Amino acid sequence: MGHAVNYLLGLLLLFAPQNPSLESGSPREREAAINKMAVEGNRDAIPQLAAALKKEPRGDTRAQMVAALGRIRDRAAVPTLTETLKSDLDKGVRSQSIDSLLRIYIPIEETGTIRTIFNKVKSVFLEADAPVVAAGVQVDTATKEALATSMQRDFDDEVRSQAVRALASLRATDQVEVLMTALEDPQNREHRSVRVEMVKTLGRLRDPKAGPILERALRDSDNQLVAEAVLGIGLVGHNSARPLLEEMFRTNSNSLIKSRSLEALSLLRDPGSVPLFESLLAHTNDNYRELSAEGLARQNYAGAKDWRTRFDVEKRANVRNALAYGLIASGDADYMNDLANALDSRQSSQVEAYIFELGTSGGKLPELHRYLRSGNPKVRAAMVRIVGNIGDPSSAEQIRPLTDDPNTDVVREAVAALRRLSR
Fold it and tell me: What are the structural domain ranges in the chain?
């Protein structure tokens, strides 16, 4: 048995590439060479990969080279990636170029063999809660301009949409004018999915000058685009559209648009919406109760001080979280425990948004530090992420001990938070 094992191992060693090369005639050897080079900080490999990329006939191998450049995470790769995005004939390679450009500015932990879109791997930047560049990171103009060009001129709508989303991930506020022009360009009318992404990105970039164009988009015939435009109005703070949003909430027959209208109103922090929110606090629709409490909480609603009884009788977790948010915002710190513990629940995304706002505009950052020592590792990990995203340098000393936490998720979040705080 031992002889057979040794024989097989010998065969593997015999046929395994000892010094894999990008010049090899074997795709497997070229792949091995790419994987060997794909190490963060390996700047010397960039010219070799760039040269090989121009000669490589196989689309899947070119995608691996592009992915390797993203894993190296050095800005010296930007010219190669932007040129590939512009000129490669394979849409999968162009898509991989966008992913790699984002990885240069947004650290994504990745180890092991490179896997690309050709391996049916979905980019982390296409997920609903896609990561964004940390505050203070300067993104190269060439990168943003290449993405904006791809958004307008690529032949494939999937690649165009991915380029639009990338502009949001990079907080490319200097491309807002380009986005607005492209959204209203008649030539883009038939590119529905791309226009929807443009509207979503204008909202995510939160530039107030996009307000009027988002309001005009409310007249579009596409309900999905209208729903995104409604939310975008709230995100950019276009308060002049408040009466129109209230009218849409009351009269529109589309349930998504109605809900988005109320969500946008809750984001506007406009005192004019207080009567509407008050009228919905006891509504049978729990989503309406949640958004109304949330909207009032963002305005430091004086009546929230009397929500204790309402909180006690409320059965729905999402509404209880919104009520707790309002109670804390009104000065009732007793409910911070309820909100922090809800980080370990199905409503964790909702709660993270509330806690982030309390730590920034609500002045509750010192209180959040206390939960970095929670006995629940899920709470510790989530709170580290929130505090890191708030970005106050004073939090670094509070977070540093968690790099030795017994829970690996907490350690990972702590390291990422400290990296953001040190930029």
Answer: 20-106, 174-268, 274-356, 364-423
The pLDDT assigned to 121 comes to: 76
136 in Cβ contact with 421 (< 8 Å): no
For the domain made up of 20-106, give the CATH fold. Leucine-rich Repeat Variant (1.25.10)
Query: Which CATH number does the domain 364-423 belong to among 3.40.30.10, 3.30.70.270, 1.10.443.10, 1.25.10.10?
Result: 1.25.10.10
Closest of 238, 153, 235 to residue 194, by C-alpha: 153
The answer to whether the pTM exceeds 0.85 is yes
Residue 14 has pLDDT above 60, yes or no: no
Amino acid at residue number 185? D
pLDDT tens, position by position, 136-154 = 889 999 999 999 999 999 9
H or E, element range at 312: helix 308-313
Domain 174-268 falls in which CATH fold? Leucine-rich Repeat Variant (1.25.10)
pLDDT for the residue 423: 67
Length of the chain: 423
Angle at 101 between CA 76 and CA 119, to 5 degrees: 120
Reported confidence tier of residue 10, pLDDT bands at 50, 70, 90: very low
Q: Classify residue 26 as exposed, middle or buried by CB count within 10 Å of its CB (0-12, 13-18, 19+).
A: exposed
Return d(Cα 316, Cα 267) in angstroms, integer.
21
Contact (CB, 8 A) for 321 and 339: yes
Q: Are 150 and 160 in contact (CB under 8 A)?
A: yes
- Hey, do 20-106 and 364-423 end up sharing a CATH topology, with the first three levels equal? yes
Amino acid letter, 11: L
Quote the DSSP letter at residue 122: P
State pLDDT tens for residues 292-342. Answer: 999 999 998 999 999 999 999 999 999 999 999 999 999 999 999 999 999
Question: What pLDDT is attached to residue 8?
Answer: 46
The CA-atom distances, in angstroms, between 226 and each of 33, 85, 201, 398 are 48, 30, 14, 43
What's the rounded Cα separation, in Å, for the pair 17 and 33?
9
**What's the mean pLDDT in 113-132?**
81
HSE value, Cβ hemisphere, 13 Å, CA-based, for 19: 1
Paired tokens of 266: 């809750």
